[in-house]
Amino acid sequence: MNLETEKLGFYRYSSPQTFYPLAGKMLPWFWVVATLFGIAGLWVSFFVAPTDATQGEAYRIIFVHVPASWMSMFIYIVMAAWAGIGLALGTRLSGMMAQALAPTGALMAALSLLTGSLWGRPMWGTWWIWDARLSSELILFFLYVGFIALQAAIDDPRRADKAGAILALVGVVNVPIIYFSVIWWNSLHQGSSVSLTRSPSMAQTMFAGMILMALCFWMYSIAVSLMRVRAIIVERERNSEWIRAEVKYAVE
User: Fold this and answer.
1) How many CB atoms lie within 10 A of CB 96?
2) 129-144 mean pLDDT
3) Of the candidates 148, 172, 178, the residue with the CA atom closest to the CA atom of residue 84
4) What string of H, E and C letters represents the secondary structure of the chain?
5) What are the residue boundaries of the structural domains of the chain, listed by start?
6) How far apart are CA 161 and CA 88, in angstroms?
7) Which residue in 221, 219, 217 sits closest to 67, CA to CA?
8) Are 135 and 182 in contact (CB under 8 A)?
9) For residues 61 and 101, what is the distance between their CA atoms, to the nearest angstrom?
10) Which of 182, 185, 211, 208 is nearest to 67 (CA)?
11) Cβ distance 123 to 59 under 8 Å?
12) Could you read off the pLDDT of 161-203 as tens digits, one per residue?
């Protein structure tokens, strides 16, 4: 197989018609992997990892809070990338992927804010402070909600994709602000316990539990986004012969 043939084989999945059945085949695998990582992560996080010497048992909320925070930022970058590709190349599937990712990203941002508040109450004595990281994470949540609302407000899907893409690309600047906020500003929020440039500042079992939960959240995000993009494809392509055939086959 030459390089040109491989490229054609890859690009053929950029069409909703070819991606729809592929997504259906991948879905069960991601659900299974997400479940396995979730079971392992919960076991290590809540039954194997030791009690923190300073924060006691309350620290265990990090096994949900930190992965949710990571995913809220990562999903936004991926969503903006898909939206940007759709804006630049006019590919239909790109806009659909961005639309499918947005609700999951909003969920992760909301979960990050909620668990952060629950963690902050015993640590800081308050549910909320206008800390740089918390405030920028709240802005990220509003960006997700704004993206979803903007697309819902425009009837024409192609125009909705373009408008959403512009908002998503502008909002990308907020992601590095979230990540570096504890370095750039005087913040009550603790610094990152995990870094690419140094060893994690926590026990190995704590680190293992956090990574397992992060992988669970990652696989879950892929699975639910694939489910959603299939629903979006059916909605947008409902007048196409191939989608009618797919739906008829699924019913039978």
Assistant:
1) 25
2) 88
3) 172
4) CCHHHHHHHHHHHHCHHHHHHHHHHHHHHHHHHHHHHHHHHHHHHHHHCCCECCCEHHHHHHHHHHHHHHHHHHHHHHHHHHHHHHHHHCCHHHHHHHHHHHHHHHHHHHHHHHHHHHHHHHHHCCCCCCCHHHHHHHHHHHHHHHHHHHHHHCCCHHHHHHHHHHHHHHHCCHHHHHHHHHHHCCCCCCCCCCCCCCCCCCCHHHHHHHHHHHHHHHHHHHHHHHHHHHHHHHHHCCCCHHHHHHHHHHHC
5) 22-251
6) 11
7) 217
8) no
9) 25
10) 211
11) no
12) 999 999 999 999 999 998 876 565 555 555 555 554 455 556 7
Looking at the chain, how many residues does it have? 252
Which residues, other chains included, contact 160 with Cβ-Cβ below 8 Å and sequence gap of 6+?
95, 150, 151, 152, 153, 154
Among 210, 191, 233, residue whose Cα is nearest residue 71: 210
Distance separating alpha carbons of residues 86 and 158, to the nearest angstrom: 9
Task: Note the pLDDT tens digit of each residue in 53-65.
Answer: 677 777 788 899 9
**What is the residue type of 157?**
P
What the block records as the tokens of 71 is: 């995913």
Q: How many CB atoms lie within 10 A of CB 91?
A: 18
CA distance 118 to 112: 10
User: Which amino acid does the sequence have at 150?
Assistant: L
Give the global pTM: 0.85
State both tokens at 125: 């004595």
How far is the C-alpha of 82 from the C-alpha of 61, rounded, in Å? 32
Token pair 């802005």 in the structure block, residue: 139
